[in-house]
Amino acid sequence: MKENKLDLNSGWEFAPAPESTAHIQLKKKYDLFIGGKWVKPKSGKYFKTVNPSNEEVLAEVAEANEKDVDLAVKAARKAYNEVWSKLSGKERGKYIYRIARLIQERAREFAVIESLDGGKPIRESRDVDVPLAAAHFFYYAGWADKLEYAFPNRKPKSLGVAAQITPWNFPMLMVAWKIAPALAAGNTVVLKPAETTPLTALKLAELIQDAGLPDGVVNIVTGYGQTGAMMVEHPDIDKVAFTGSTGVGKIIMKAIAGTSKKSTMELGGKAANIIFEDAPLDQAVEGVINGIFFNQGHVCCAGSRLFIQESVYDVVMRKLKDRMSNLVVGDPLDKNTDVGAINSKKQLDIINNYIKVGKDEGAEFYQPTCSTPKKGYWCKPTLFTNVAQSSRLAQEEIFGPVLAIQTFRTVDEVIAKANNTPYGLSAGVWSDKGSKVFNLTSKLKAGVVWANTYNKFDPTSPFGGYKESGHGREGGVQGLEPYVKFN
Ligand code: NAP
Ligand code: MG
Description:
The structure is a single chain. By secondary structure, this protein is of the alpha/beta class. The protein has 2 domains: about 30-265 and about 465-485, Aldehyde Dehydrogenase, Chain A, domain 1; about 270-450, Aldehyde Dehydrogenase, Chain A, domain 2 (3-Layer(aba) Sandwich). About 40% of the residues lie in helices and about 15% in strands. The protein is built from 15 helices and 20 strands. It has helices at about 65-80, 90-105, 105-120, 120-145, 145-150, 170-185, 200-210, 225-235, 245-255, 280-290, 315-325, 345-360, 390-395, 410-420, 435-445; strands spanning about 30, 30-35, 35-40, 45-50, 55-60, 155-160, 160-165, 190, 220, 240-245, 260-265, 270-275, 305-310, 365, 380-385, 400-410, 425-430, 450, 470, 485. Helix 7 (about 200-210) links the parallel strand 8 (about 190) and strand 9 (about 220). Helix 2 runs antiparallel to helix 4 (about 120-145), helix 3 (about 105-120) packs across helix 4 (about 120-145) and helix 4 (about 120-145) packs parallel to helix 6 (about 170-185). The protein binds NADP nicotinamide-adenine-dinucleotide phosphate and magnesium ion. Magnesium ion (MG) binds near residues 49, 50 and 117.
């Protein structure tokens, strides 16, 4: 073991501290979870899910075709008609509480599987994804018997069957965001996790069996994008809840146009993190690092654009580069790791292409000198400075650890620049002055604006976008509304 070095520019080294995988149980092959049972796919097909940090196959997973999707929707409809819509809110709440408690009991197993399948650091899955997933189930369990108080004098009724489609960046958490409010409001569910990260959703299916949830209330089907499209187009669903890219969101909105299907779209983002000269700079730099590099920038609300007030530009850049040189990039299961593996080869190619675009456009490129493992998919934390407002780096969602940095002089200038993207999911403001913060929070067109912090989530707080970042809210009492109707 080498001693910790104090020279900030050469980085610190820690002894390896890998989380054990001895306590996790994964099957070699996963079927579809339909009607409370594991059923073989009619397609007869399976695909592999790999560990992106070493390219090893973790399991084979069923690929659902149209017949499988139809069986899942039928199971959900039957459960809705015969059981779930007839239960009292109090009874539904008991099941949801039970799921929440079981997630807490098996939190470690879920966290390790999340990091194995998706590449995110264990510190993130252990401290953020899994506890927040449990918290969402606890929170919405509490609403199940209080819907009339959530919507006073409006007589809320459930919708029926919800088709829910989730992305690969927060696999378990997004599943919780979808299932918990749907069940609390009295709906049943067919859910499809992303192709590269299906394992925690399938584990949750096992847990749902253990919780004794009535058969068919939650159905989990796996597959590629086409499986999601089949769910969206199925005539017997009442609601589509989608989290993913703006491109796919647009395809889904076209597919359901003219139908009575309700929708919630949680789509992409290009958040601005804004540092004013009066900000606590060390705290701001830490927030920037957290906002774009932890989780490899695989965050819809990642602070992927940084605006620094000109007078503090040099000092912020020096602090940022110092901090970057100390980031630990590597094994997602190591508790010291800050930056894990990129989720897939496909995503790595997309990120590398953006890095090439940035260089070709003439922006200045910086990466720390850290090493990355030989196998697996890796991208070092990356900065671009001198980025033009019209640059693709400043306009398009990269979904990787790549930060585009610009400067500003006045408040009006930074508001105009920050709002100048097709997206509007989140933003961050760093300033010592409350009045400045409140001025910006009302003028930035973003669903969430964090002040002197970043990437903070709570089940009681609604989350969602403006413009091409989507519509509808998840979380909070607002997150119940997309799952009820009033007449
Ligand atoms: P994606 O490619 O849009 O995929 C999302 C999900 O949709 C996956 O399960 C995918 O299946 C499925 N899908 C693909 N094509 C489909 C189609 N034609 N019809 C129905 N479903 C289809 O997004 P991603 O790359 O997984 O996730 C990254 C994106 O999610 C980013 O843009 C990020 O900003 C966004 N995101 C937004 C939020 C938010 O709350 N606003 C949160 C997290 C992520 P396969 O994966 O199997 O192809
Ligand atoms: Mg995987």
